Amino acid sequence: MGSDVFTLVEHVGGTVDDSTHELLGKARELATATGGRSVACLLHSGARAGADGLAADVVLSVEHPALEHFLPEAYVKALAALVADHEPRVVLVANSTVGMDVAGGLSARTGNGLVAYCNAITLEGDTLVAISQVFGGKLNAEVAVEGPAICSVVSGSFAPATGGSPDIQDVTASGIDNLTTTFLARIEPEASDVDITAEDILVSVGRGIGGADNIEFAQELADALGGVVSGSRPVTDAGWLSKTRQVGKSGQKVKPKLYIACGISGAPEHLEGMSDAELIIAINSDANAPIFDVAHFGTTEDVLDVLPALTEQIEAAVA
């Protein structure tokens, strides 16, 4: 087992995802503890996706036609080959759609222990200790892994690393010439009348709103504030809002100045998409809802009572 800390670089269209910079921040800290290097693993086809600016000691750049688009089988085999060659102490991946596809397969292929939904990671000698969110974020489990480990990390858990002039090394990863799966097409999301990622104020609704008819209360508040309505996955799955307004891991990651969570419990998948908001206000009748762990202000009053009252106060203040 070596002392390096690996980070899988997530990128689309040449743009590195914010989650990668957060992982590189933690990788730098862990590498200092192990006496190793922070190593970014960049899998691509013909584009280095901002490798020069990655805050890592080393970038292992793997170029292959099968890596033009994200293909789980190709990513797992390529990353497993790098792990076999370099034997890192820890591999960090984002707890994203990409990361979840890769982490389980990588663990099975390498035999290295996997801890998912991490929001804290420390090293105590040869033991890695991680805090993992379980039961939809309602409990935190402390997990110890002896030997090399893989951690999938919840977005927003660590401060991003900035700046970097890494040593970029072009390497070959074996095992990806003969794949059993093929990338067919990338399906773009449907067009929307609004881009929630560009909005400063979001009034976001969850199942606690009670039904599609009650979204009008959130809309009235959003109108009074000059914002727009967004929602959690259960709301968009139910057809109460368009998928383009979904906040969370399988929706959009947003960073508004104000995020009002209305009847949203705060599952890890949702928190991943909005925990970086500057100001978070939570309205939920369950005092133990995980949303209160990230909220700056909150109330357990009935959301259908609070929304009209807020709207009335705001309209009176600006009249």
- The side-by-side strand order for the widest beta sheet comes to 9-8-7-10-6-1-4-5-11
Average pLDDT rating: 91
**Main CATH class of the largest domain:** Alpha Beta
CATH topology name of the largest domain, in short, is Rossmann fold
Protein name: Electron transfer flavoprotein subunit alpha/FixB family protein
Function: The electron transfer flavoprotein serves as a specific electron acceptor for other dehydrogenases. It transfers the electrons to the main respiratory chain via ETF-ubiquinone oxidoreductase (ETF dehydrogenase).
InterPro entries: DHS-like_NAD/FAD-binding_dom, ETF_a/b_N, ETF_a/FixB, ETF_asu_C, Rossmann-like_a/b/a_fold
Organism: Paraconexibacter antarcticus
Report on the architecture of this protein:
With 319 residues, the protein is of the alpha/beta class. The chain has two domains: 5-171, Rossmann fold; 196-318, 3-Layer(aba) Sandwich (Rossmann fold), CATH 3.40.50.1220. It contains eight helices and 16 strands. Strands 9-8-7-10-6-1-4-5-11 form a nine-stranded mixed sheet. Strand 2 (11-12) and strand 3 form a beta hairpin. Helix 2 (72-86) crosses helix 3 (97-110) and helix 4 (215-225) runs parallel beside helix 8. This is Electron transfer flavoprotein subunit alpha/FixB family protein. InterPro entries: DHS-like_NAD/FAD-binding_dom (IPR029035), ETF_a/b_N (IPR014730), ETF_a/FixB (IPR001308), ETF_asu_C (IPR014731), Rossmann-like_a/b/a_fold (IPR014729). Heterodimer of an alpha and a beta subunit.
